[in-house]
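Deviations from the work plan: none for this task. Representative record:
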Amino acid sequence: MKKVSFLIGISAIVFTLFAFNTTGGKLVSSKTHIKFFSHTSVEDIQANNYASVSTIDQATGDVVFSVPMQSFEFEKALMQKHFNQEGFLDTKQFPKAKLKGKITNLSEIDFSKDGSYNAIIEGELTIKGKTNAIKEKGTVTVKGNVISTASTFSIVLADYGVAFEKGKPSTNIAKTVEITVHAEYKPE
Amino acid sequence: MKSRKKKILKIGAILLIAGLLIGGGTVLYMFNMPHRDVQSTSVDFSITASQLVTEYLENPSQANEKYLADDGDSKVLEISGTVAKISEDFNGQKVILLKSDTDKAGVSCTFTKETNQNVSNIQIEETVKIKGVIRSGASFDPDLEMYENVIVEKSDLIK
């Protein structure tokens, strides 16, 4: 009899562990879109990236984006070349940018219930080897078993060592650019 | 005498206009330079997905030096491997992951709106050869807690 209750106890524990695993696991997304947009009176410039990888941990609120810099695509080929070069983002030396953050209001997000939740993400952003602290607002959307994250925020290029004193870049590229981030996570 | 002066003036004017046209044309071309057509660019390296991943995992800086270009026009590769996953990105482009079961990472190949249709009949487990431009290498990312795949874009299937 003791043996049986012991077995039941063990199976109960194992079952709980599994249950937690399925609801609280880490989700991976390779379906992402990152856009940057620069506005000046001279011209608007935008670039799109569809090749980033992101993870979200529903249990801890950790969110990570790894961004392959050479995957940013511009309308104009010359701009794209400039973007990659040493004076700008130096993508050969720094092939990836990274956003690493934590959702600080995790208790307000119910990953098991459909809806759109406001999220506050605190962490750091690393571009061109330079890391700065960020605190941004975003949304987490739950629809069935698909979870999406989205956020739009601004960064100051000079904070990441991208600054132009003179010439065309100084007039045509905004000092502050807007970054839009979107990812869709599905269980495998 | 007068006609000679006229002649010089005429030649000067023609030269000036020609110069302006060439100069202006160059500026215009630079500004509107078309994107590199990866598929009509010759292949720099022919390699298997496993070899490429191994090169990156063993010596990432050496691999970056070999495959990435300063201006983003990185090496054009012809990669053969086993199809492990077929998906679509937010831009409606097909993405085929070449990865063998025994490798830690694979090669993720993004197609284009023009080449999408060429992979509609591809099956999982099939062995294929894909041509595209490399964007970034494979590595273990401690924050993602997983291996990242090599990223190849502007892909098409090689028959």
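Residues 138 and 144 of chain B are 13 Å apart (CA to CA).
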